[in-house]
Amino acid sequence: MISFAVTSIAVCFGGFLSNIISDMLGRIIGALTLGGLGIYTLVNAFLNREPVECDRDKSFSIDTKEACFMGFAMSIDCFMVGMSVGIEGSNGAWVPVICGILQMLFLYIGEFTAKHISRHFQQKHFNMLAGIILILTGISRIFL
Fold it and tell me: What is the model's pTM?
C-alpha cells in the first residue's frame, strides 16, 4: 500500500519534472541513481557489511512498524520508476498497480529463495548479485 501511494505521487512528480528537464536527462539521473545504489551494494558486499534488515528485533517475524519500514524502503525503487514514467510522458496510471503486484511477487520469490537456495550460498553472494543487477539496470536505462 505504501509503494502504491509513493509510486502514484512519483508519477505526478515526474510529470511535473517533464516540463523542466529533458527525457534524456531524466534517464541519466535514473541510471546514475540505480548504478550508484548498485556500486554501494557491491562495495558493502566486498567489505562484508550486512544490508539493513527489516526484522529489527530479530523475532523472525515482521511487525507493523517493521512492515512499514520495509514498504518505505521498497517504495524508493518504485518512486524512481514512477518518476521516470512521468518524465517520459507515458500514461502512468498502471505503474502503481504493476509495482505493487511485482513487489508482492518478488517478496514471495525472495522468501522461497531464502528457505531453499540460501543454504548453499553466503549472504555476500546475494548482495553482490543485487549490486550487479542494479548496475546493469542503470546502464540499460540509458540505452533502452
Answer: 0.59
Q: Which residues contact 118 (CB under 8 A, 6 or more apart)?
A: 126
**Phi-psi category of 49—alpha, beta or left, where left has phi over 0 and alpha has psi -120 to 50?**
beta
User: Three-state SS string across the chain, please?
Assistant: CHHHHHHHHHHHHHHHHCCCCCHHHHHHHHHHHHHHHHHHHHHHHHCCCCCCCCCCCCCCCCCHHHHHHHHHHHHHHHHHHHHHHHHHCCCHHHHHHHHHHHHHHHHHHHHHHHHHCHHHCCHHHHHHHHHHHHHHHHHHHHHC
| Domain ranges across the chain | 2-143
- The answer to whether the beta carbons of residues 89 and 14 sit under 8 Å apart is no
Q: For residue 59, what is its C-alpha cell? A: 523475532
Tens digit of pLDDT for each residue in 72-98?
666 666 776 677 677 666 666 777 787
48-67 pLDDT tens trace? 766 556 555 666 566 666 66
- Has residue 14 got a pLDDT over 70? yes
